[in-house]
């Protein structure tokens, strides 16, 4: 039984793999790969969206999902989490699911979109993207090839770069010269905390 509705007498797609009945030319093999690759990239989102829909419509459906898919609970929970956290409109077809899973931990959707755009623009793999998020800027290849024991601890640079992006976005939408005195004083008071850190160094 062909589970993916890809029909060809030269091979059979089953729940356990592909059985090749005849030899494929390189072009035929390549064409099959082009059909399979998008399924591999999107299956996590497809199942995650399916679970989230069932949960929102009928309550907790993990037991039914476990029975229907045969996948482990942790796998289903991960798919549902990533699909819930990364909005449909932000997902990029040419980026791997693991890239989306990496940004799913970021709470701010605009911040997620920023890193997905960066991953797309610079063809980032998961490790370089994670490093870049931790640094708050695009990590170089040399930095990615650093200490393999590096656990990717988030540094102050990530927070500073995030603050800079917030400032640019805020002032672009609402220029400082249009702020009233009260608004200016409130922001100054908040930034005094940052100044205190600077002066303590």
Describe this structure in words.
This protein starts with 10 loop residues before the first strand and ends with a helix. About 3% of the residues have low confidence. The chain is mainly α and 201 residues long. α1 packs across α3 and α6 crosses α8. Strands 1-2 form a two-stranded antiparallel sheet. A hairpin with a 2-residue loop joins β1 and β2. It has a domain of 85 residues. The chain is 63% helix and 4% strand. It is elongated.
Distance between the amino and carboxyl termini: 68 Å
The residue fraction in helices comes out at: 55-70%
Order of helices and strands: EEHHHHHHHHH
The major β-sheet equals: 2 strands, antiparallel
How big a fraction of the residues is strand?
A: under 5%
Please, what is the average pLDDT? 82
Low-confidence stretches: 147-152
Rg for CA atoms: 23 Å
Q: What strand order characterises the main sheet?
A: 1-2
Shape: elongated
Number of helices in the DSSP assignment: 9
Number of strands: 2
Helices and strands: which structural class? mainly alpha
